[in-house]
Every structure is written in C-alpha cells, then in structure tokens.
Amino acid sequence: KHPFAERFATLKGAKVRTVGEAFADFTDILGQPINALYKNMMTDIVGITHLTVVNARFVRDPIWSLGMISSLELLLKNYPEAGAGEKIIASLFECCGLDEAALRADAAMMREWVVGKSREDIAAALRGEGDSPVAAVGKAAKDDEYWMYSRFFGIGLVALMEEIGVEMNADDVYPVMEEFMSTSMGKSHFTACSDSDMYFKVKNKLDLMETMMKEIEIREKKRMAQRLEDKAEAAIRKAERGVELAKEIEKEAAAKS
Fold it and tell me: Which of 119, 164, 177, 203 is 20 to 30 A distant from 32 in Cα terms?
C-alpha cells in the first residue's frame, strides 16, 4: 500500500460538499445579498477556502490564518454597508467550519511576532530554527512529505514581507518568496509567486475601486451642496418677492385711503 493511501485511508468514501453546496450554505448563513462589486471576489474566496479546508492534507497554521485574515480585511475594508463586512467574514468561516476567534488570534500573533524582524530572521524561522510559531510551521512542513501549500499561506508570507518593509510588487516579492518557500522550506515557490501576483492585481483593482467610490462621493456631495444652494437662493427670491408684494399692497392701500 502507498504511504499516502495508508495515511488517509480512514477518509475513504467520506462525503464532501461541492463548492456550489458550500456557497449555498454561505448565502443562507449570511441572509442578505452581497454588493454587486464584491460578489465575484467573495464567490472565489468561498470556493477556494472550501476546497482548501476539505482537503485531507490541509493543516491550518498561523501563516495561513494571517493570509486569510489579511485577504478578507483587504477585500472588505471599504464595503459600502457598515457592519456587513464583519458579517460576511463570520458567515464564510462558519460555512467552512473555521473558528474565527482562533484565526484572528493566530493572525494577531503573527503580526506581533514579526515586529522588529528582518528578512533573514523570517527565513531562519522557516528553516525551522528557534522556537517561534513560524519555526514550528517550517519544521512541520519539512517533516511532512505531503505538506500542502494553499493560496492563503502564500498571502500570509506576503503579509509578513509587507510588515518588514518589502515593496509590494512582483519584482521585489518574487525573490523573497523563492527564498522563503524554496531555500528555507524546501518547497516549490512557483504557485506562491503566482498567488502573490494575483493578490497584487486584486489589491490594485480594489485601490482603483476605492478611488472611484471617493470620486463619486465627492461629486455627490458637490451636487447635494449645489441643490441646497439652489434651494436657498429660491427661498431668498421667494422671500424677496413676498416683501415686494407686501410693499405694493401697502402702496395700493395708502393710495385708496
């Protein structure tokens, strides 16, 4: 028997929801429509997250949690309806069987750990050196021939890079990603580089969307101010006409008397 088959033999025949079923559950839990500008991106995240967590090889770790939280914060930071972003995140985690509090705690731990660290510090930890949570991830990956890479792990590494001052573009991130994934962890870096590139494209798209929404808001405020000014001027003109009319009435009354 192959070692892979032996390791995961207990999962043989296990029923796994389809992506469509997972998204239907997410929609039911959320209980409200998603803004049209965000629907495609959220559909993608629900699908990717579901396919990741139902994989027998998946093991959640703090770097993955950081990538998951960072992605959702980036995606939903300017969601137009107040409070809806938090509800969307909670619904995603619930439908995928993830503990939101645990993920947020892991992400916060990573952000705290990386303060004051250098690129070499992170690379050394990913080699398994030391007793940090990142070193534990590195050791576990090296010791497991079936260790599974997934998109949010790569984005978690990007988030760590951002914290230490790596410029957020492909030219600067790719060499660091190769060092972290291939040199330090002994895993392929190609998919992680591709995922980081997709992350930058989404980030740029969201930045553009944010700019457009701000411009729309500014234009709407200008239109509202103009409407108020027009109403004020109309009220003044009406009052002036009323004063003139009163004067004419007084003149006519004086002439008759």
Answer: 203
